[in-house]
């Protein structure tokens, strides 16, 4: 059983994350096909034929809609192809777009889901299970999924690089405030007003002479110093001699531990099963920093076929999560980029 995920190229990481969540949840019962919607592929007939074949074999279309993606014509094109084939369409609104704000003809599809809505993950997997006739779902950590999903959406959010121009204040005629005189003229009492009471002048108070303070007689400056006593001698504690170690044990202690080769390192953490594949790649590169891994090394360590890893690496590279170093006569090596390190810190489950 297959489903098709329609998205724009800038949101490939979000589509790959949903693909990984779906395939790891249903354990081989459902295969998710991810599109690469881009205007550069418009003239490629093979790409159009691939969409046609994928929609023929799919039972559901997941349409990822955001304020950015609905501006692309290919999202509407793939939705129209699914409509003509009577293929069910499930719209997922994210990145600030609400289901109530969907423009026509996308608004004709029933029961769209909002990522920021309550119980989004439960509604998504419930719809998928009903579509594919799966009666029982495994126990899932929806909270951990939502944490990683929000971190992914935050990382692919478009950054506003426009700088607002600072407008200088226009020269407007302003009324000048006249400073008030320091000495105001005496106000003449009007008719009917009583004369204010005259202010009585204060007579200076007499200071009471204080009694002179008598200071104590100074102590004699010449005092006889007591003879200094010699400090008692303290013997340093003797440290016991180190026990003699047999020659056989010394030889064993000198032998250094074998360093594990990077190709034999296995991710045996219990959290790996609940993590997406792209997060496992980033976490593995973070642990191996500053050295990198080749595609074959990543495939061996993660126990994932190289063809399945390639679209994840391409998407992570395109979104600047990882760096690729290429040298002559050697395979390309992947290493963690600063954006990938930020993603890992933001997607931690507290």
Percentage of residues assigned to helices: 25-40%
Instruction: Tell me the strand percentage band.
Output: 5-15%
Structural class, from helix and strand content? alpha/beta
First CA to last CA: what distance? 35 Å
Briefly, what CATH class of one domain? Alpha Beta
Basic shape: globular
CATH architecture of one domain: 3-Layer(aba) Sandwich
The total beta strand count reads: 8
Helical segment count:
10
Any chance you could write out the topology, listing elements then pairs?
Layout (H helix, E strand, L loop, with lengths): L1 E5 L5 H15 L4 E4 L10 H13 E8 L7 H12 L4 E5 L19 E2 L5 H13 L9 H14 L91 H8 L22 H11 L5 E2 H8 L3 H13 L3 E4 L7 E4 L1 H9 L4
Parallel strand pairs: 1-2, 1-3, 3-4, 4-5
Antiparallel strand pairs: 6-8, 7-8
Helix pairs in contact: 1-5
